Amino acid sequence: TFAMELGLAEKRLQSHDMHEGIEALLVRKSNDAQWDPATLDEVDVEALGAEYFKPEYQYKPGFVHDVAFSEYPHKYGLPTEKEIMAMVSGENPQAGSFSLLHSDIARFFEHEYEGKVGVRQKVRWVLGRLDRE
Asked: Which is the most buried residue in 35, 60, 90, 106, by most CB within 10 A?
């Protein structure tokens, strides 16, 4: 399923035709790609099936980092609960020595995440859970 589709996509990305098509369209800016095979009639369907759909084909996706998604180092997502709790507890040096209001913490993260949609809601959700505990 996902692993198989990922493996097929990765294999296709490494093929001659993928590189040829990208080079023709984006580098040479032409419509003169030299496909291999050159026509659909020349495609060996059995060889294609054997290459891409072997029953024993087991693709194991690898990851670039050994970091858990919840600890991903880039700010593509929303602030983590760990980051929010560090502001509440004062572990984050930017929290200072003063007690912060929930609205101050939300504003801090909105600024840190450059106004990203959903930041305020996530911070309020985490802080609301903390209040109920």
From this structure: 106
Q: The pTM is what?
A: 0.44
pLDDT one digit per residue (tens) for the chain, 133 residues: 677 777 778 778 888 888 898 898 888 898 898 988 889 899 888 888 777 776 655 666 666 656 555 555 556 688 989 899 999 888 888 877 777 888 999 999 999 888 888 899 999 999 998 877 6
Backbone angles phi and psi of 101, in degrees to 5: -75, 160
Please name the residue that has the structure tokens 């026509």: 39
- Residue 52: its H or E element: helix 45-52
Structure tokens at 13: 């990305």
